[in-house]
């Protein structure tokens, strides 16, 4: 598995269970048991998902005696969003230019057909 931050973030987000866990944590801290509740999988399987999220820096775990709440960490999500936005601007610009070229070709074709 790659170890650069962006790759870790996208790899963690690739799994629907991990995305659901992050969505739950967006509402506030939760224990592993609370996070596992809606899933039809073992506590061990949920813990593995949490380790992936923690390695990617998307969650952190508290150290409050027996209660170790998980919390969402947004910095990696913000970095991924900035990366996507940067490329979205490029793609949008390219599509706009392509649309303009298509319009020009259509006008030329219409002039040719009617002229």
From TrEMBL:
Q: Name one Pfam family in it.
A: HTH_20
HTH arsR-type domain boundaries: 1-92
Keyword Transcription applies:
no
**Source species, domain of life:** Bacteria
Which PROSITE patterns did the record assign? HTH_ARSR_2
> What UniProt keywords apply to this chain's record, in alphabetical order?
DNA-binding
UniProt xrefs under InterPro entries: ArsR-like_HTH (IPR011991), HTH_ArsR_DNA-bd_dom (IPR001845), WH-like_DNA-bd_sf (IPR036388), WH_DNA-bd_sf (IPR036390)
Gene3D superfamilies according to UniProt = Winged helix-like DNA-binding domain superfamily/Winged helix DNA-binding domain (1.10.10.10)
Q: Which GO terms label this protein's molecular function in UniProt?
A: DNA binding; DNA-binding transcription factor activity
Output the NCBIfam families linked to this UniProt entry: HTH_metalloreg
Q: What is this protein called?
A: DNA-binding transcriptional regulator, ArsR family
Q: Which organism is it from?
A: Nonomuraea jiangxiensis
């Amino acid at each position: 598995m790659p170890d650069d931050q962006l790759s870790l973030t996208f790899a963690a987000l690739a799994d629907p269970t991990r995305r659901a866990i992050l969505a739950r944590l967006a509402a506030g801290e939760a224990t592993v048991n609370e996070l596992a509740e809606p899933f039809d999988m073992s506590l061990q399987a949920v813990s593995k998902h949490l380790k992936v999220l923690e390695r990617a820096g998307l969650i952190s775990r508290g150290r409050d005696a027996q209660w170790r709440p998980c919390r969402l960490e947004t910095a990696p999500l913000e970095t991924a969003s900035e990366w996507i936005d940067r490329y979205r601007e490029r793609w949008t610009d390219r599509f706009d230019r392509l649309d303009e070229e298509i319009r020009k070709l259509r006008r030329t074709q219409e002039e040719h057909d009617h002229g």
